[in-house]
Design goal:
The protein is an alpha/beta fold. Helix content is about 45%, strand content about 15%. It has two domains: about 1-30; about 40-280, Alpha/Beta hydrolase fold, catalytic domain (Rossmann fold, 3-Layer(aba) Sandwich). The protein has helices at about 1-30, 35, 100-105, 130-145, 160-170, 185-195, 200-205, 210-215, 235-245, 260-265, 265-280, and strands at about 60-65, 70-75, 85-90, 110-115, 155-160, 175-180, 220-225, 250-255. Strands 1-2-4-3-5-6-7-8 form an eight-stranded mixed β-sheet, with helices on both faces.
Length: about 280
């Protein structure tokens, strides 16, 4: 009897320790979500070489949000642009780490406005989901109001986490087109895939619900994703394509999450070019 009680006590102790450990993990996941989602210091907040280092003339821009945050941005013009890209980058690094994309858009005859969210690069403030949405509104106003670019000539482009911000902006305004590259359905949805043993949707304080925003977007949509994406599986992109309204297109790439557009080369350029021609009429 004594041995049986000892064994039971040991089992209960182990169960309590496991439960306590699990509770600690849940608490940490809830409390430190921002550190799990945003990586402004990876690889660095320091701004590297500008577009002129790859032969592109550009203008340094400072954009003020409605809550008084100053955002750092670059405007890269082209002669007689077919449209202007508003670029929403992913959750790491800053605008100086996106020179390859600026080169691509330049080849496609597109001017580009790329900016850093609050808390990224040289932009002021502390990053948050609602703050990023305010940033998106500010850069949209900068393009359409201050620069006078017609909304129907603006192409919203979002990569990775930026796909949610682009979809949010498209759902509230009337751009000429929306391109979502390597996007996720939502942060909780992605977390549920990565951490199936956690109640991710119950713990979520950060959402970025790309799929929800897409359902109300009325402009042409291009969803771009690589089957080799090791960060956000292609099934996330396929689900986004499914919920998007017509007219819509899907462009499948090869290569990883961060280099698929480079690895795919001509396929990527031709796919974007065909979509832009159909959407913008030029």
């Amino acid at each position: 009897m004594s041995d049986r009680r000892t064994s039971l006590s040991t089992v209960l102790s182990i169960v309590m320790l496991v439960a306590a450990g699990y509770a600690a993990v849940l608490l940490a996941a809830f409390a430190f979500q921002s550190r799990l989602v945003y990586f402004p210091n990876v690889p660095s907040r320091a701004i590297g070489p500008g577009p002129d280092s790859i032969g592109l003339a550009y203008e340094s821009v400072e954009i003020l949000t409605e809550d008084g945050i100053r955002l750092d941005a670059w405007y890269v013009p082209v002669r007689e642009p077919r449209g202007t890209v508003l670029f929403f980058h992913g959750n790491a690094g800053n605008i100086s780490h996106r020179l390859d994309s600026l080169r691509v858009f330049n080849k496609l005859g597109l001017a580009t406005l790329i900016f850093d969210y609050r808390g990224f690069g040289r932009s002021e403030g502390v990053v948050s989901e609602q703050g990023i949405y305010r940033d998106a509104e500010a850069v949209w106003r900068h393009l359409t109001d201050e620069r006078g670019i017609p909304a129907e000539e603006v192409v919203l482009f979002g990569r990775s986490l930026g796909a949610a911000v682009a979809a949010y902006t498209a759902s509230r305004h009337g751009p000429g087109a929306l391109i979502i590259e390597s996007g996720l359905v939502s942060v909780p949805d992605m977390a549920a895939e990565v951490y199936p043993w956690l109640p991710a949707r119950w713990l979520a304080r950060i959402w970025f619900p790309t799929g929800d925003y897409l359902q109300t977007v009325t402009c042409p949509v291009l969803v771009v994703h690589s089957r080799d994406d090791e960060v956000i599986p292609i099934k996330q992109g396929l689900r986004l394509f499914k919920v998007a309204r017509e007219p819509k297109q899907f462009l499948e790439l090869r290569g990883g999450h961060n280099d698929g557009f480079l690895v795919s080369g001509r396929r990527y350029l031709d796919g974007l070019d065909a979509f832009l021609t159909a959407s913008l009429g030029k």
